[in-house]
Amino acid sequence: MKSLFISGLLVTLMVWLSACSQTPPAPAPDYLLPGASHSGHSPLQIRVSLASYLDQGGIVLQLSDTELHVARQHRWAEPLGSQLQRALAATLASQTTLHELGKLDLQLSRFQGVQSNGGDVAMITGTWQFTHEEQVQRGTIEWQGPIGGEGYAALVKALDQGWQEVGQSITQALK
C-alpha cells in the first residue's frame, strides 16, 4: 500500500514538473511602419488625428461592413499617430520642394486591413487640410491596395506602402 502511494505521488510530481518545464508560447511581435524609421524634416507642422478605434494600440482588421477586430496580440510598437506623422514627414522631405511653413492636419477614418471575397486589401481613408497664412487647401485620402502575403507583417508593409503613396499625392496637390 505504501509503495502504491509513493508511486502515485511520484507520477503526480513528474506530471506537475513536466508541466512547469514547458516554456510559454512566445508573445506576438509588435509592429512598426518601415517608413517611420526614416528620418526627414519637413518644413510643415504635421498633425495626424485618428478615429478612436484606430488609436487603441492594436492593428485593425475589418471583417465585414459592420464588424471590426482590434488585435490584442498584434500591436503597434508605438502610438500609430506618432509613426504616421514621422513617416509622412520623411516622405514629404524626400518628395517635396515645399519651402513654405504651414500646417498640415490629417484626419484618418481608416488605416486597416479589410477582408473581402475578392481578396484581402489594406485601406486608408480620411481627409487632409493644409493651412498657410490665410490660404486653406483641402483634400481627401482614398487609398486601397493588395496585401502581398499573409499575416500582420504583410498588412503592415501594405499600409506603409499606402501611406507613402498618400504622402506623394498630398505633395502633388500642394505643388
Task: State the major sheet.
Answer: 7 strands, mixed
Determine the fraction of residues in helical runs and give it as a percent range. 25-40%
What radius of gyration results from the CA coordinates? Answer: 24 Å
* Domains, number: 1
Looking at the overall shape, the CATH architecture is 3-Layer(aba) Sandwich
Rough outline: globular
Assess the beta-strand content as a share of residues. 25-35%
- CATH fold name: Rossmann fold
Number of strands: 7
> What is the succession of H and E elements?
HEEEEHEEEH
From the structure provided, what is the oligomeric state, counting identical versus distinct chains? Answer: single chain
Q: Give the number of helices.
A: 3
Low-confidence stretches: none
Structural class: alpha/beta
Q: What is the residue-averaged pLDDT?
A: 85
The first-to-last residue Cα distance is 91 Å
CATH superfamily: ABC-type transport auxiliary lipoprotein component
- What is the CATH domain class? Alpha Beta
Organism: Alcanivorax jadensis T9
Pfam families: ABC_trans_aux (PF03886)
InterPro entries: ABC_trans_aux
Keywords: Signal
